Amino acid sequence: MKIYRSKKAEEHLLITYDQLLGMWGVNYEECDIQTRYGSTHVILCGESEKPILVLFHGVGDDSAMMWVYNAKYLAEHFRIIAIDTMGGPGKSRPNSEYGKGFDRAIWIDEVLDGLAVDDVSMAGTSNGAYLIQYYAVARPERVKRIVCLAGSVPASGGNVMKVMFRIFLPEALFPTKRNIERLVHKLLGANSDAFLKNDNLMEHFKWLLKGFNNMAMSYHKFIPLSDHQIASLRDKSLYLIGEEDPFAQMGGKEALIRYGMNVRFFEQVGHGINHEIANEINTMMIEYLGDGNHTPLASI
């Protein structure tokens, strides 16, 4: 499965990926972990003796872009492991086994095993929030706590693709400068300048829309969690959601309230919550997950 539509798109995306990494403002290292599904790219930063925090980005973006406003501050408290999703943009590269029955829990197992880490905290944005909820249910013994950004509980009855189409179309099909700006305004809240005024982010986003082959994520089948499984997450999870997030407005907010999850809503904030109000999100993540220097909060 090709990740990028053309060699030109891949070259531009990798150049802008590295430019965004340079904006993290923290020393980092990159490595590739071999799994049965291919090579998984990982970015590591923060002192190795600190508590481990594993980060997952969303669909149609990557680690370099997702954590550009967060990595430096989180790395002061955690050993950060930022993973490029298999089949997504970034530097992970699937092999032929990826299309023969991809199992996300086994994939994450093999990444963590390859890094020789266990008993971790996790945070994820959008689809990354789904990944960490799924994994925390599948492997509760490996996950201490999770923070879900711009993501709701993956209950049955929703139509994820229908919601995606309503939000991203038609702008994503025709990624002109004007349409990209319109899409950013649809996704983000009052502080859309956190994206629009960052030239490196906008350039990378442009090439993602132009060059990423969305079908490469088609093997990530949505598997809803049962009511019992969702309830098992209640005491180990925190959800941080923007009131202006279109996904929240199309049922995500209501589901979080219905299931009684530990959630905080933010006015005038959209789907790019960890970009839009980075300082506040960084602080809440550090306080909830605990950094080894103080007692983690049971609930904020």
From TrEMBL:
<dbReference type="Pfam" id="PF00561">
    <property type="entry name" value="Abhydrolase_1"/>
</dbReference>
<dbReference type="InterPro" id="IPR000073">
    <property type="entry name" value="AB_hydrolase_1"/>
</dbReference>
<dbReference type="GO" id="GO:0016020">
    <property type="term" value="C:membrane"/>
</dbReference>
<dbReference type="InterPro" id="IPR050266">
    <property type="entry name" value="AB_hydrolase_sf"/>
</dbReference>
<feature type="domain" description="AB hydrolase-1">
    <location>
        <begin position="51"/>
        <end position="157"/>
    </location>
</feature>
<protein>
    <submittedName>
        <fullName>Alpha/beta fold hydrolase</fullName>
    </submittedName>
</protein>
<keyword id="KW-0378">Hydrolase</keyword>
<dbReference type="InterPro" id="IPR029058">
    <property type="entry name" value="AB_hydrolase_fold"/>
</dbReference>
<dbReference type="GO" id="GO:0016787">
    <property type="term" value="F:hydrolase activity"/>
</dbReference>
